[in-house]
Description:
The protein is an all-alpha fold. Helix content is about 70%, strand content about 0%.
Amino acid sequence: xxxxxxxxxxxxxxxxxxxxxxxxxxxxxxxxxxxxxxxxxxxxxxxxxxxxxxxxxxxxxxxxxxxxxxxxxxxxxxxxxxxxxxxxxxxxxxxxxxxxxxxxxxxxxxxxxxxxxxxxxxxxxxxxxxxxxxxxxxxxxxxxxxxxxxxxxxxxxxxxxxxxxxxxxxxxxxxxxxxxxxxxxxxxxxxxxxxxxxxxxxxxxxxxxxxxxxxxxxxxxxxxxxxxxxxxxxxxxxxxxxxxxxxxxxxxxxxxxxxxxxxxxxxxxxxxxxxxxxxxxxxxxxxxxxxxxxxxxxxxxxxxxxxxxxxxxxx
Length: 315
């Protein structure tokens, strides 16, 4: 029996070596197989998010591994993936940059500075990590894509919450009661939005306006503590402590990206031209990254101004 089995294995091996097609199939298992990219009309309804992006779609994979291999070849989600993947890495590094290049050189600096700025940076990193993963798994299946779409929105909440923590800290630097109050209200609002985000109906098209209301309301809630700070301390002081000039540029970048994304330009103007590079969603990603860096620079500015004085709270 063993002799016969050995003979069959030898014949099978010889047949494989003699048959180029069999050798090719074996090679396909060892090498990355780049799938044929699809047109918009070829993909399932649950993937049809932007009717102005007409090509470059990966076929439905049904496999996490196959979806992850999508980072190795070009398709219409590549820029969305790498923009926030790189951004995630950068913001994981920035707390160390702050510690070694700013915190160490300010004799009045406190551990609180490292904590609040690290919260912001890690909040951005979480947001970008969720976003990159969502775009990687975009073609997996309707169920998994829906799940990661919720986490993508949840990441936006984490970023917004993380941005508020240090802004409140420096904006009400001399009033710990107001710091705690606005930290609690911001965290409570973020938690409420998170619960809504994870609700099964959240990503349905019928819920689109509610999504806009909840997230818009959370974003506008930051205006309340900014205005309160201005009333208490005036423009000149809060311009320094809250880095209002930097915040203005941050808001401009975010708003510009959001408007371009909502308008689906420039892809609606020139079909096929921006399927891989320059689409509205990609512009939004870059705008959000720029806004995140601007806010970080604003926090560094507030830190430097406040900690350059021995006692900032002495009138």
